[in-house]
Amino acid sequence: MPRNRLAIRTIFESSNEYGFPDLLPELLAREVPTSLYAYGSGRMQDTSGAIHFFVEDFKFAGMWHYPERGARAVLNANSAAICEPDFSLWLDMPLAEQIHAIYQRRWCARKWQEYGCKIIPILSAGTEATWSFAWDGIPKGCPVVAVQVQTIADSGYLTAMLQAAIETVQPQSVLIYGKRKPLEIDFPCYWFPPFTQQLQERANGKRQNVNRRA
After folding, report:
1. Where are the alpha helices (DSSP H) in the chain?
2. For residues 62 and 99, is the Cβ–Cβ distance under 8 A?
3. Which residues, listed in sequence order, are joined to residue 122 by a DSSP beta bridge?
4. By CB neighbour count within 10 A (0-12 exposed, 13-18 middle, 19+ buried), where does 99 fall?
5. Which of 112, 166, 200, 211 lies 20 to 30 Å from 104 when distance is taken between CA atoms?
6. Within 10 A of 183 (CB to CB), how many other CB atoms are there?
7. Distance, CA of 161 to CA of 62 (rounded, Å)
8. Is the Cα dihedral 57, 177, 157, 104 positive or negative?
9. Torsion sign (Cα): 14, 106, 108, 22
10. Contact (Cβ atoms closer than 8 angstroms) between residue 27 and residue 169
């Protein structure tokens, strides 16, 4: 029987039950980037920023279906680091789909490391049933991790999930992408506003400048 070329075309070293690839510690981002910008945006040559995939899945599905092409694309972006692709983990998804999404993100990130890319692991998880394995493959004590809060309305769930992730991964700092939410977490966090908010703030700033000139 022929192998499924997508699922097992390359088997990376894994130390966990589900076979999620272990990310290489030496190819993890070590510094907090100056900005987070979406893959495919006009800022793909920001050498001090990091690429994120906190967008609709269809915009980066090719990273999984055409991994070599995707790896070259993120490498040529010349950014300081690249976040793992955030394949969606919806709470109403079957557990099998949630496991697969985690495998996809870790596999792609490990593939990019083969090309020398510096990776920022992401902490997004699904239902509480995934919290025992969602961060497998991420080295403990890694310098920088990221999470998006745009699609998470329940602050209670978000706080509990992040606390579980931080306890497991023990990172040095967490990048949070999205509008600020009340989080009861005593940990070094760096907030990055979503692109729409950035545009609004720039527009407001321009209007304020015009008013001051007047």
Report:
1. 5-8, 62-65, 67-76, 95-113, 155-169, 195-213
2. no
3. 146
4. buried
5. 166
6. 16
7. 28
8. positive
9. negative
10. no
165: tokens are 């992730």
Residues 96, 155: Cα–Cα separation, whole Å: 25
> Using one digit for the tens of pLDDT, what is the confidence trace for 73-95?
888 888 999 999 999 998 899 99
Tens digit of pLDDT for each residue in 144-182?
Answer: 999 999 888 888 999 999 999 999 999 999 999 998 878
- CA 123/CA 159 separation, integer angstroms: 12
Nearest 5 degrees, angle CA 60-CA 145-CA 80?
A: 65
CB 119 within 8 A of CB 109: yes
The sheet carrying 173-177 orders its strands as: 144-148, 173-177, 189-192
**Spatial separation of the C-alpha atoms in residues 29 and 117, rounded to whole Å:** 9
Q: What is the model's pTM? A: 0.87
Q: Identify which of 80, 83, 74, 75 has the alpha carbon closest to the alpha carbon of residue 48.
A: 80
Sequence-separated contacts (24+) of 191-200 with Cβ below 8 Å: 192/35, 192/36, 194/150, 195/37, 195/38, 195/41
**Dihedral sign, CA of 92, 98, 102, 104?**
negative
Give the helix/strand (H/E) hosting 185.
Answer: none
